[in-house]
Amino acid sequence: MEQLGSHAALVGAPEDAMADEPAIRDAAAILARAAADEEAADQARDRYRTRPMIVLEPDERIAPLLATGEQVVAVRHGAVFDRRQSVPGSRVPIGVAGDLYVTSRRIVLVGRVILSLGLEEIEEVGLSGERLLLILRTGSSVTVEIGQPSLLRVEIGAARASARV
């Protein structure tokens, strides 16, 4: 190994030797997940341009929470909500995990506590890595850490568009 300033370089090592490094493998896995997520999001966008969202059968966790006429259009297991702006006196915990349901009227997180956001409360949905940022009309925001965030963003957008009609 040859020292170059404050960086170390492998001299004479084949370029693909670094592919066995855990960080490189992790980066490759992250890039593959992101590419698959983007592809799924593109397919969903194309599908929702010509057809409505498919209504899913509500499971035992969400069924008792649905209002009359409210339908489930997407489900994600293992979501983490994180409130980005503290609300003085709020009893809502900062980080909450559970199953995320997108319905025809709202987003519902069902975990040790139940959180609900009306689709009309959402001003904008942004993407940051494997997180969604939900910016609310009140000026506060919530991040949602979830698998396939790009696809979920499209699903939320389609549900919001359908709710406005």
List keywords for this structure.
165 residues; alpha+beta; two-stranded antiparallel ribbon; disordered N terminus
Major β-sheet strand ordering = 6-5-4-3-9-8-7
Q: Which shape, going by the Cα principal axes?
A: globular
Q: Could you list the spans in which at least 5 consecutive residues all have pLDDT below 50?
A: 1-13
Label the structural class: alpha+beta
Order of SSEs = EEHEEEEEEEH
- How many domains? 1
Q: Helical residue percent?
A: 25-40%
CATH architecture: Roll
Quote the distance from N terminus to C terminus.
65 Å
Radius of gyration: 20 Å
**CATH homologous superfamily (4th level) name:** Pleckstrin-homology domain (PH domain)/Phosphotyrosine-binding domain (PTB)
Major pleated sheet: 7 strands, antiparallel
- The number of E-state strands comes to 9
Mean of residue pLDDT values: 83
CATH hierarchy class name = Mainly Beta
Q: Give me the number of helical elements.
A: 2
Estimate what percentage of residues fall within beta strands: 25-35%
Q: Could you say what the CATH topology is called?
A: PH-domain like
